[in-house]
Amino acid sequence: MDIEELLPQQPEGSKEEQKKQSPLISLEKDLELYSDSVKEVAVAIMSEGISTHPIFVAHQHTVSIGEVILDRKELNTDWTIQASTMDEFVEKGIINPERKALFLKSYKKPEDYMCVFVIVPEGANFIYYPYKK
Fold first, then answer.
1. 65-86 pLDDT, tens per residue?
2. Region annotation Disordered: residue ranges (predicted)?
3. What is the number of domains present in the chain?
4. Spatial CB neighbours of 49, under 8 Å, sequence gap ≥ 6
5. Domain range holding 70?
6. Residue 1 falls within a domain, yes or no?
7. For residue 49, is it within any domain?
8. Separation of alpha carbons 130 and 102, rounded Å
9. Are 81 and 39 within 8 A, CB to CB?
C-alpha cells in the first residue's frame, strides 16, 4: 500500500485547507526528513540478523510496540518513529499468523522502501514509503 491510498478523498477547498485536514501530509514531510536515519536503522536490523523484515511505527501518541528511534518532541516534528520487526507484529497479534504469508507477499524491498505502520485516531495501516535517492 502506498501513502496515497491512505489519504482521504480530496475535499473541496483550497490546498491550504486540504493540508490542515490530513495528518498524513505532515507524515510525508517527516518521513522525507527521517529517510536517511530510518534506512540506517533498517540496514542495521537486517545486517545484525535481527530481522529481514523491519517495520517502522509512525504515531503521535504512546504505543507499546518497537523502540523509539526518532522522537517528535526531541526533534520538534509531528511524528514519532519506532523500530520493530514483522516477528514482533506477529507475536503481538497485529499481523495474524495465518495472514503472515500474505503480508510477506506484499512486503516491498526493504533496501528501497520503509515499511511504516501508521497509527492515527481513526485506525492504523501499513504504507511503503521510498527512501530518498
1. 999 999 999 999 999 999 999 9
2. 1-23
3. 1
4. none
5. 25-130
6. no
7. yes
8. 21
9. no
Per-residue DSSP letters for 82-107?
A: EEEEHHHHHHTTSS-GGGHHHHHHH-
**CB-side neighbour CA atoms (13 Å) of 45:** 25
Is residue 59 very low, low, confident or very high in pLDDT (cuts 50, 70, 90)?
very high
Q: Does some domain include residue 42? A: yes
Instruction: Confirm whether 89 is domain-assigned.
Output: yes
The alpha carbons of the chain give a radius of gyration, in whole angstroms, of: 15
Position 11: which residue type?
P
Sign of CA dihedral 39, 82, 2, 109: positive
Count of positions (residues) in the chain:
133
Cα–Cα distance, 37 to 20 (Å, whole number): 27
Count of beta carbons in the 10 Å neighbourhood of residue 65: 18
